[in-house]
Amino acid sequence: MQTTILTYLGTPIFGICLSLAVFLLGQWLFKISHGLFIFQPLFVGMVLGIFILWLMAKAFGVDVTWFYTNAYKPGGDIIFWFLNPATIAFAVPLYKRNDVVKRFWLEILLSLIVGLFISLFIIYGVAKVLGLDNNGIASLLPQAATTAIAMPISGAIGGTPAITAMACILNAVLIYALASWLVKIFRLKEPIGVGLGLGTAGHTVGSAKAIQIGSVPGAMAAIAVVIISIVVNLVVPTFAHMMGL
């Protein structure tokens, strides 16, 4: 009986249904809590999904990693595939405000590149102080990129993509939660800077917050997601090699 159930769970249907169920539950909790950041759907989906997989693995008496690979991953990979076209969709708000991009393209490009290099050195330094090994450091370095880009880079430089995904999602949730407060406390009145900051630090979730603020921040967040992902793809492997990871 148990073998039959595990065989059924190994079809893509289980992974797809579980992903949709926990995300929809997150949306409902986010709505009834009037936007409480801890119920951000992406965060709820991640935490609840991990807990359910762990609980089911224990119930069936199998290894959690095995259960994840054989039961969830076939459907989860299909969900993951949609991250790529979702990332490309950020070209839409960017196209709508390309007049701003054409006018300030040099300032935008330089600020993102400089900010990325600063973040890489800070991440590396803090990770060393905390005593993380090379795998842990490599897992954290690509988190400036959106999840779909960061995970493959993490695997390529010796990191663990799952840890990278968690770091990206936690970043996004924190930025979504603190965005309005940070804008107010630092008196950030320049919409270009606000958008670039939210897109760089908060990825897709940060960009959604930027779109709520205005069309210019939304467009700048979109270009930040795209440019940072490209720069991370080019710079992080070289940085990791230089640091001996």
Task: Describe the fold and architecture.
There is one protein chain. The chain has 245 residues and is mostly helical. It folds into 2 domains: 2-81, no CATH class; 89-242, no CATH class. Helices cover 83% and strands 0% of the residues. The protein is globular and about 60 Å long.
What is this entry, summarized?
The protein is mainly α and 245 residues long. It has helices at 2-9, 12-32, 41-60, 64-81, 83-88, 91-96, 98-129, 134-140, 147-156, 161-185, 191-213, 215-242. The longest helix is centred in the middle third of the chain and has 32 residues, at 98-129.
Number of distinct helices? 12
Into how many domains do the coordinates divide? 2
Average pLDDT, to the nearest integer? 81
List the uncertain runs: none
Query: What spatial form do the alpha-carbon principal axes imply?
Result: globular
N- and C-termini, Cα separation: 46 Å
How much strand content do the residues show? under 5%
Biggest sheet character? none
Share of helical residues: over 70%
C-alpha Rg (nearest Å): 19 Å
- Secondary-structure element order, N to C: HHHHHHHHHHHH
Which key features would you list for this structure?
globular, 245 residues, 12 helices, 0% strand, 2 domains, mainly alpha
